[in-house]
Amino acid sequence: MDILIAFLVMFGIAVLVGILLLLCSHFFAVKENPLKRQVRECLPGINCGACGYKGCDDYALAIAEDGARPNLCIPGGQEVADQIGEILDIKVEPFEDVNAFVACNGNCDAAVKLADYEGVKTCSAASMLYGGTNACRFACLGFGDCAAVCPQNAICLKDGIAHVDASLCFGCGLCVKTCPKHIIYMVPQVIKTVVTCSNTQKGAEARKACKNACIACRKCEKICPNGAIKVENNMAVIYYDKCTNCGACVKECPTGCLKTLDFDDKR
Question: Which terminus of the chain is more exposed, N or C, with fewer CB under 10 A?
Fold first, then answer.
């Protein structure tokens, strides 16, 4: 009899708690914005943060309740932007596909090392020790902080520097934010010609630090038929609104820091 009474008491408590939980879930439930749910279903769910929000849920909520722009999802591209535009019944601005690009060609054969680094194997840690081990203070440190944050595994380390696989990169920009040297840029996929150097020292100093550095010789500037290249602050700068990708500057560059790359969209 004592066991039966104890069982009935516990059973009664369990039923009471269940009823209380059910009532709480009913009266205190936070109703989800149906527009947010529709927008969220369009987003890829990668949660990369490239849109400027913590993840796809936060971005969907911002669109539904705060009027955030519908074309901020870089992985989703124009397709996702158009889908969200249809839901919101608005016209979406054209979406420009971009790729990450590492503006450094200071590989193991070209770059001069000042010391061996034995600390924490991250670029952020190495850069705090006198700017790193390279003679060029603008050079890629090669520890792969950018590769670690890439959600697509589009970045690898080869010959001491980071390389981006354009066929995998969807342009989230996380590597740009992570690089302590600030030598990774987002560039439109239509671009073919790039400057693979970030050293703004004078030509002689830059060449001492790296054989592949831009030496500000202005040969590219002089040969460009469209005036698309200017040497500014000891560095060749390409104005892509004028560049026709003719490749004349690439052939003329004495150090090979100007290269032709293919950011063809293969997604």
Answer: N
3-state secondary structure of 30: coil
Torsion, CA 219, CA 221, CA 224, CA 227, rounded to 10: -170
What is the three-class DSSP state of 35?
helix
Question: Which residues lie below 8 Å from residue 57, measured CB to CB, with a gap of 6+?
Answer: 40
Helix 56-66 / helix 34-42 crossing angle, nearest 10 deg: 130
Q: Which amino acid, residue 155?
A: I
pTM: 0.74
Q: How far apart are CA 1 and CA 9, in angstroms?
A: 12
Q: Is 186 helix (H, G, I), strand (E, B) or coil?
A: strand
What tens digit of pLDDT does each residue of 206-245 get? Answer: 999 999 999 999 999 999 999 999 999 999 999 988 998 8
